[in-house]
Amino acid sequence: MHIRHQDLTTAEVRSSHLHRLHRVTLFSAAICHITQGSKVIIQDDSRLVAGPGELIIIPANTPL
After folding, report:
1. What distances in angstroms separate CA 55 from CA 6, 20, 34, one per listed residue?
2. Cα 37 from chain centroid (whole Å)
3. Residue 30 CB: number of other CB atoms within 10 A?
4. Whole-prediction pTM value?
5. What domain of life is recorded for the organism (predicted)?
6. Residue 2 lies in a domain
7. Is 54 within a domain?
8. For residue 31, what are the domain limits?
9. How many folded domains does the chain comprise?
10. Which residues in the chain belong to E strands, given as ranges?
11. Helix (H) and strand (E) counts in the chain
């Protein structure tokens, strides 16, 4: 699903495998809704774990 309205874009990403990303910078703000499993975000010395039903809000230009 991909919808674009002026400057607002949404996309749905589904994955059944663990993906590890290193040194990624998000240039656009992001809101991630976790529907199953969990997501771990590590930034410097901080570690965030989100589970089903939780939202992760990431500001633009955030290095992860």
Report:
1. 23, 19, 6
2. 13
3. 13
4. 0.63
5. Bacteria
6. no
7. yes
8. 21-64
9. 1
10. 2-5, 8-11, 25-26, 30-33, 39-43, 46-50, 55-58, 62-63
11. 0, 8
